[in-house]
Protein backbone atom coordinates (compact mmCIF):
# COMPACT_ATOMS: atom_id res chain seq x y z
CA UNK A 1 0.00 0.00 0.00
CA UNK A 2 2.81 2.36 0.96
CA UNK A 3 4.68 1.46 -2.25
CA UNK A 4 1.65 2.23 -4.45
CA UNK A 5 1.07 5.52 -2.63
CA UNK A 6 4.72 6.50 -3.06
CA UNK A 7 4.58 5.73 -6.78
CA UNK A 8 1.43 7.81 -7.15
CA UNK A 9 3.05 10.71 -5.30
CA UNK A 10 6.19 10.45 -7.45
CA UNK A 11 4.10 10.39 -10.62
CA UNK A 12 2.27 13.52 -9.50
CA UNK A 13 5.58 15.30 -8.84
CA UNK A 14 6.98 14.29 -12.23
CA UNK A 15 3.78 15.37 -13.99
CA UNK A 16 3.91 18.69 -12.20
CA UNK A 17 7.57 19.17 -13.09
CA UNK A 18 6.90 18.20 -16.69
CA UNK A 19 4.16 20.81 -16.89
CA UNK A 20 6.46 23.47 -15.46
CA UNK A 21 9.28 22.66 -17.83
CA UNK A 22 6.88 22.57 -20.78
CA UNK A 23 6.43 26.34 -20.63
CA UNK A 24 8.57 28.11 -23.21
CA UNK A 25 10.51 31.06 -21.84
CA UNK A 26 10.95 33.91 -24.32
CA UNK A 27 13.23 36.86 -23.57
CA UNK A 28 12.41 40.28 -25.05
CA UNK A 29 15.25 42.80 -24.88
CA UNK A 30 15.50 46.55 -25.49
CA UNK A 31 17.68 49.48 -24.43
CA UNK A 32 14.97 51.92 -23.33
CA UNK A 33 14.38 53.00 -19.75
CA UNK A 34 11.18 52.31 -17.77
CA UNK A 35 8.43 54.79 -18.64
CA UNK A 36 9.74 55.43 -22.14
CA UNK A 37 7.62 54.79 -25.23
CA UNK A 38 9.47 51.62 -26.16
CA UNK A 39 9.33 50.30 -22.60
CA UNK A 40 5.59 50.87 -22.32
CA UNK A 41 5.06 49.36 -25.79
CA UNK A 42 7.06 46.26 -24.88
CA UNK A 43 5.20 45.81 -21.59
CA UNK A 44 1.79 46.16 -23.25
CA UNK A 45 2.72 43.68 -25.98
CA UNK A 46 4.01 41.15 -23.42
CA UNK A 47 0.84 41.55 -21.33
CA UNK A 48 -1.42 40.92 -24.32
CA UNK A 49 0.60 38.02 -25.67
CA UNK A 50 1.06 36.30 -22.30
CA UNK A 51 -2.66 36.49 -21.64
CA UNK A 52 -3.35 34.59 -24.85
CA UNK A 53 -0.40 32.21 -24.51
CA UNK A 54 -1.96 31.04 -21.24
CA UNK A 55 1.06 29.19 -19.90
CA UNK A 56 2.23 27.60 -23.17
CA UNK A 57 4.93 30.25 -23.32
CA UNK A 58 5.84 33.34 -21.35
CA UNK A 59 7.47 36.54 -22.61
CA UNK A 60 9.70 38.28 -20.10
CA UNK A 61 10.81 41.83 -20.86
CA UNK A 62 14.38 42.93 -20.14
CA UNK A 63 14.59 46.75 -20.44
CA UNK A 64 17.42 49.25 -19.87
CA UNK A 65 20.12 47.34 -21.79
CA UNK A 66 19.96 44.48 -19.26
CA UNK A 67 20.81 42.07 -22.10
CA UNK A 68 23.46 44.41 -23.53
CA UNK A 69 23.58 47.13 -26.17
CA UNK A 70 21.58 46.90 -29.39
CA UNK A 71 24.69 45.52 -31.07
CA UNK A 72 24.98 42.86 -28.36
CA UNK A 73 21.30 41.94 -28.61
CA UNK A 74 21.50 41.54 -32.38
CA UNK A 75 24.18 38.89 -31.86
CA UNK A 76 22.22 37.24 -29.05
CA UNK A 77 19.14 37.07 -31.28
CA UNK A 78 21.13 35.07 -33.82
CA UNK A 79 22.34 32.72 -31.07
CA UNK A 80 18.84 32.35 -29.56
CA UNK A 81 20.08 33.85 -26.28
CA UNK A 82 17.10 36.16 -26.55
CA UNK A 83 14.07 35.56 -28.72
CA UNK A 84 12.55 39.02 -29.31
CA UNK A 85 14.30 42.36 -29.76
CA UNK A 86 13.18 45.96 -30.33
CA UNK A 87 15.76 47.80 -32.48
CA UNK A 88 15.29 51.21 -34.03
CA UNK A 89 18.14 53.05 -35.80
CA UNK A 90 20.42 50.02 -35.76
CA UNK A 91 18.13 48.30 -38.27
CA UNK A 92 19.99 50.28 -40.94
CA UNK A 93 23.04 48.22 -39.91
CA UNK A 94 21.06 45.00 -40.24
CA UNK A 95 19.73 45.69 -43.75
CA UNK A 96 20.71 48.66 -45.92
CA UNK A 97 17.16 49.45 -47.02
CA UNK A 98 16.20 50.56 -43.50
CA UNK A 99 18.68 53.42 -43.85
CA UNK A 100 16.01 55.31 -45.79
CA UNK A 101 14.37 56.10 -42.45
CA UNK A 102 17.54 58.02 -41.58
CA UNK A 103 16.90 60.49 -44.38
CA UNK A 104 16.01 63.87 -42.80
CA UNK A 105 12.32 64.79 -42.95
CA UNK A 106 11.40 61.91 -45.28
CA UNK A 107 8.58 60.77 -42.96
CA UNK A 108 6.05 63.56 -42.44
CA UNK A 109 3.83 62.10 -39.73
CA UNK A 110 2.64 58.82 -38.21
CA UNK A 111 -0.10 58.35 -40.79
CA UNK A 112 2.55 58.64 -43.52
CA UNK A 113 4.71 55.99 -41.82
CA UNK A 114 1.70 53.67 -41.57
CA UNK A 115 1.04 54.03 -45.32
CA UNK A 116 4.70 53.34 -46.06
CA UNK A 117 4.63 50.02 -44.22
CA UNK A 118 1.23 49.02 -45.58
CA UNK A 119 2.29 49.61 -49.19
CA UNK A 120 6.07 49.15 -49.19
CA UNK A 121 6.79 46.91 -46.20
CA UNK A 122 6.40 43.62 -48.07
CA UNK A 123 8.06 45.10 -51.14
CA UNK A 124 11.30 46.30 -49.61
CA UNK A 125 11.80 46.17 -45.87
CA UNK A 126 10.49 42.82 -44.62
CA UNK A 127 12.26 40.86 -47.40
CA UNK A 128 15.51 42.79 -46.81
CA UNK A 129 15.45 41.90 -43.11
CA UNK A 130 14.60 38.26 -43.85
CA UNK A 131 17.70 37.98 -46.02
CA UNK A 132 19.70 38.83 -42.89
CA UNK A 133 17.86 36.27 -40.78
CA UNK A 134 15.60 38.81 -39.06
CA UNK A 135 11.79 38.62 -39.21
CA UNK A 136 9.91 41.88 -38.62
CA UNK A 137 6.68 41.17 -36.74
CA UNK A 138 5.59 44.72 -35.93
CA UNK A 139 6.39 48.32 -36.82
CA UNK A 140 6.36 50.33 -33.62
CA UNK A 141 8.17 53.60 -33.09
CA UNK A 142 10.82 55.55 -31.27
CA UNK A 143 9.41 58.88 -32.47
CA UNK A 144 10.48 62.20 -33.98
CA UNK A 145 14.00 63.16 -32.96
CA UNK A 146 15.16 66.50 -31.55
CA UNK A 147 18.60 67.84 -30.62
CA UNK A 148 19.67 68.69 -27.08
CA UNK A 149 23.04 70.18 -26.11
CA UNK A 150 24.93 72.33 -23.61
CA UNK A 151 26.62 74.75 -26.04
CA UNK A 152 23.98 76.85 -27.82
CA UNK A 153 20.44 76.73 -29.26
CA UNK A 154 20.45 75.06 -32.68
CA UNK A 155 18.47 77.05 -35.23
CA UNK A 156 20.29 76.26 -38.49
CA UNK A 157 22.66 73.44 -39.45
CA UNK A 158 25.72 75.70 -39.05
CA UNK A 159 24.90 76.07 -35.36
CA UNK A 160 26.01 72.45 -34.94
CA UNK A 161 29.57 73.21 -36.01
CA UNK A 162 32.04 71.64 -33.62
CA UNK A 163 29.43 70.20 -31.24
CA UNK A 164 30.26 66.73 -29.91
CA UNK A 165 27.01 64.89 -30.56
CA UNK A 166 26.12 61.38 -29.50
CA UNK A 167 24.26 59.46 -32.19
CA UNK A 168 23.02 55.84 -32.31
CA UNK A 169 24.71 53.15 -34.36
CA UNK A 170 23.89 53.81 -38.01
CA UNK A 171 26.10 55.19 -40.77
CA UNK A 172 23.53 57.59 -42.23
CA UNK A 173 22.97 59.42 -38.95
CA UNK A 174 26.71 59.96 -38.69
CA UNK A 175 26.91 61.19 -42.28
CA UNK A 176 23.96 63.53 -41.79
CA UNK A 177 25.48 65.29 -38.79
CA UNK A 178 28.91 65.45 -40.39
CA UNK A 179 27.21 67.25 -43.29
CA UNK A 180 25.69 69.70 -40.80
CA UNK A 181 29.12 70.37 -39.26
CA UNK A 182 28.79 68.49 -35.95
CA UNK A 183 31.23 65.93 -34.54
CA UNK A 184 28.94 62.87 -34.25
CA UNK A 185 29.99 59.77 -32.31
CA UNK A 186 27.98 56.53 -32.09
CA UNK A 187 27.44 55.47 -28.50
CA UNK A 188 25.21 52.95 -26.73
CA UNK A 189 22.08 54.54 -25.26
CA UNK A 190 22.89 53.32 -21.77
CA UNK A 191 26.12 55.36 -21.75
CA UNK A 192 24.64 58.68 -22.86
CA UNK A 193 23.55 60.23 -19.55
CA UNK A 194 27.03 59.93 -18.05
CA UNK A 195 28.66 61.20 -21.26
CA UNK A 196 26.45 64.31 -21.20
CA UNK A 197 26.89 64.90 -17.48
CA UNK A 198 30.69 64.66 -17.65
CA UNK A 199 31.05 66.66 -20.86
CA UNK A 200 32.38 63.75 -22.92
CA UNK A 201 29.50 64.67 -25.24
CA UNK A 202 28.01 68.15 -25.68
CA UNK A 203 24.67 66.86 -26.84
CA UNK A 204 22.57 64.10 -28.33
CA UNK A 205 19.44 63.64 -30.47
CA UNK A 206 16.44 61.53 -29.56
CA UNK A 207 12.64 61.57 -29.44
CA UNK A 208 10.97 63.09 -26.37
CA UNK A 209 10.25 59.71 -24.72
CA UNK A 210 13.90 58.67 -24.91
CA UNK A 211 15.13 62.08 -23.68
CA UNK A 212 12.68 61.87 -20.79
CA UNK A 213 13.33 58.20 -20.05
CA UNK A 214 17.09 58.75 -20.06
CA UNK A 215 16.76 61.92 -17.91
CA UNK A 216 18.88 63.81 -20.42
CA UNK A 217 16.87 66.98 -19.71
CA UNK A 218 18.49 67.04 -16.28
CA UNK A 219 21.96 67.54 -17.79
CA UNK A 220 21.19 69.56 -20.96
CA UNK A 221 20.62 73.32 -21.37
CA UNK A 222 18.89 73.46 -24.76
CA UNK A 223 16.40 71.41 -26.73
CA UNK A 224 16.03 72.42 -30.38
CA UNK A 225 12.81 71.17 -31.93
CA UNK A 226 14.27 69.90 -35.18
CA UNK A 227 12.08 66.81 -35.66
CA UNK A 228 14.79 65.88 -38.15
CA UNK A 229 14.13 62.13 -38.31
CA UNK A 230 11.17 59.92 -37.51
CA UNK A 231 12.60 56.71 -36.07
CA UNK A 232 10.52 53.57 -36.42
CA UNK A 233 11.08 50.79 -33.91
CA UNK A 234 10.67 47.18 -34.90
CA UNK A 235 9.64 44.09 -32.98
CA UNK A 236 11.83 41.40 -34.51
CA UNK A 237 12.73 37.74 -34.07
CA UNK A 238 15.21 35.35 -35.65
CA UNK A 239 13.75 33.71 -38.76
CA UNK A 240 15.53 30.46 -37.83
CA UNK A 241 14.66 30.20 -34.15
CA UNK A 242 11.14 31.65 -34.34
CA UNK A 243 10.17 29.00 -36.89
CA UNK A 244 11.02 26.30 -34.33
CA UNK A 245 8.37 27.49 -31.88
CA UNK A 246 4.95 25.78 -31.87
CA UNK A 247 2.76 27.20 -34.62
CA UNK A 248 0.10 28.44 -32.20
CA UNK A 249 2.76 30.32 -30.20
CA UNK A 250 4.13 31.89 -33.38
CA UNK A 251 0.63 32.92 -34.44
CA UNK A 252 -0.22 34.62 -31.13
CA UNK A 253 3.08 36.50 -30.96
CA UNK A 254 2.80 37.69 -34.58
CA UNK A 255 -0.82 38.78 -34.13
CA UNK A 256 -0.10 40.72 -30.94
CA UNK A 257 2.97 42.37 -32.47
CA UNK A 258 0.69 43.81 -35.16
CA UNK A 259 -2.14 44.38 -32.74
CA UNK A 260 0.03 46.57 -30.53
CA UNK A 261 0.86 48.99 -33.39
CA UNK A 262 -2.18 51.25 -32.89
CA UNK A 263 -1.56 51.33 -29.13
CA UNK A 264 1.99 52.52 -29.82
CA UNK A 265 0.90 55.27 -32.21
CA UNK A 266 -1.72 56.59 -29.79
CA UNK A 267 0.66 56.51 -26.84
CA UNK A 268 3.41 58.19 -28.87
CA UNK A 269 1.14 61.07 -29.88
CA UNK A 270 0.03 61.51 -26.27
CA UNK A 271 3.62 61.55 -25.02
CA UNK A 272 4.62 64.10 -27.67
CA UNK A 273 1.91 66.42 -26.34
CA UNK A 274 2.98 66.03 -22.72
CA UNK A 275 6.69 65.40 -22.40
CA UNK A 276 8.18 68.65 -23.70
CA UNK A 277 6.21 70.56 -21.07
CA UNK A 278 7.24 68.09 -18.37
CA UNK A 279 10.92 68.29 -19.28
CA UNK A 280 11.15 72.05 -19.56
CA UNK A 281 9.08 72.70 -16.44
CA UNK A 282 11.12 70.36 -14.26
CA UNK A 283 14.61 71.37 -15.45
CA UNK A 284 16.66 74.31 -16.73
CA UNK A 285 16.45 73.08 -20.31
CA UNK A 286 15.09 75.70 -22.75
CA UNK A 287 13.26 74.87 -26.01
CA UNK A 288 13.66 76.69 -29.31
CA UNK A 289 12.18 76.44 -32.80
CA UNK A 290 14.45 75.81 -35.79
CA UNK A 291 14.68 76.72 -39.47
CA UNK A 292 13.57 73.37 -40.91
CA UNK A 293 13.87 74.63 -44.48
CA UNK A 294 17.57 75.23 -43.87
CA UNK A 295 18.00 71.68 -42.58
CA UNK A 296 16.10 70.24 -45.54
CA UNK A 297 18.26 72.22 -47.98
CA UNK A 298 21.42 71.00 -46.26
CA UNK A 299 20.28 67.38 -46.58
CA UNK A 300 20.18 67.09 -50.37
CA UNK A 301 23.54 65.35 -50.58
CA UNK A 302 22.52 62.62 -48.13
CA UNK A 303 19.51 61.72 -50.26
CA UNK A 304 21.66 61.56 -53.38
CA UNK A 305 24.28 59.40 -51.67
CA UNK A 306 21.69 56.96 -50.32
CA UNK A 307 20.05 56.72 -53.74
CA UNK A 308 23.34 55.65 -55.30
CA UNK A 309 24.75 53.51 -52.48
CA UNK A 310 21.76 51.31 -51.63
CA UNK A 311 20.05 48.87 -53.98
CA UNK A 312 16.80 50.45 -55.18
CA UNK A 313 17.63 53.43 -52.93
CA UNK A 314 16.42 56.11 -55.32
CA UNK A 315 13.19 54.19 -56.00
CA UNK A 316 12.53 53.68 -52.29
CA UNK A 317 12.97 57.40 -51.60
CA UNK A 318 10.68 58.32 -54.49
CA UNK A 319 7.94 55.89 -53.43
CA UNK A 320 8.04 57.01 -49.79
CA UNK A 321 7.82 60.65 -50.80
CA UNK A 322 4.86 59.88 -53.07
CA UNK A 323 2.99 58.46 -50.06
CA UNK A 324 3.41 61.66 -48.06
CA UNK A 325 0.27 63.21 -49.54
Describe this structure in words.
With 325 residues, the chain is of the alpha/beta class. The protein is 50% helix and 18% strand. The chain has helices spanning 2-22, 37-53, 70-78, 91-94, 110-131, 171-180, 192-198, 208-213, 239-242, 247-259, 261-281, 292-298, 300-309, 313-322; strands at 24-29, 57-62, 84-85, 134-149, 164-167, 183-186, 203-207, 222-224, 230-238, 286-288. The strands form two sheets. Strands 4, 5, 6, 7, 8, 9 and 10 form a seven-stranded mixed β-sheet that branches. α2 (37-53) packs antiparallel against α11 and α13 packs across α14 (313-322). The N and C termini lie far apart (80 Å). 44% of the residues are buried.
In short:
With 325 residues, the chain is α/β, with parallel strands linked by helices. It is 50% helix and 18% strand. The chain is built from 14 helices and ten strands.
What features would you highlight for this structure?
10 strands, 3-stranded parallel sheet, 50% helix, 325 residues, single chain, alpha/beta, 14 helices, 7-stranded mixed sheet
Number of continuous helical runs: 14
How many angstroms separate the termini? 80 Å
Order of helices and strands: HEHEHEHHEEHEHEHEEHHHEHHH
Per DSSP E runs of 2 or more residues, the count of β-strands stands at 10
Based on helices, strands and strand pairing, what is the structural class?
A: alpha/beta
Overall geometric form:
globular
**Share of β-strand residues:** 15-25%
Helical proportion, percent range: 40-55%
Q: What does the radius of gyration come to?
A: 22 Å
The pLDDT mean sits at 93
Largest sheet: 7 strands, mixed
Low-confidence stretches: 1-20
Amino acid sequence: MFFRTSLAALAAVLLSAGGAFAQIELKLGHVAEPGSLIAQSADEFARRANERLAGKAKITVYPSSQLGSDKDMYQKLKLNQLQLWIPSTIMSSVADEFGVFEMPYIIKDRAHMKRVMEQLGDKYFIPAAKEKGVLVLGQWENGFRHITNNVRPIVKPEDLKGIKLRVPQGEWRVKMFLTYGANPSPMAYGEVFTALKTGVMDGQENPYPQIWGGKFHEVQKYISLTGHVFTPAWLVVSTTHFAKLPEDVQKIIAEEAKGTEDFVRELAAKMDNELLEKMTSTSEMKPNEVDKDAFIAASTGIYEEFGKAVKNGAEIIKEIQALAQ
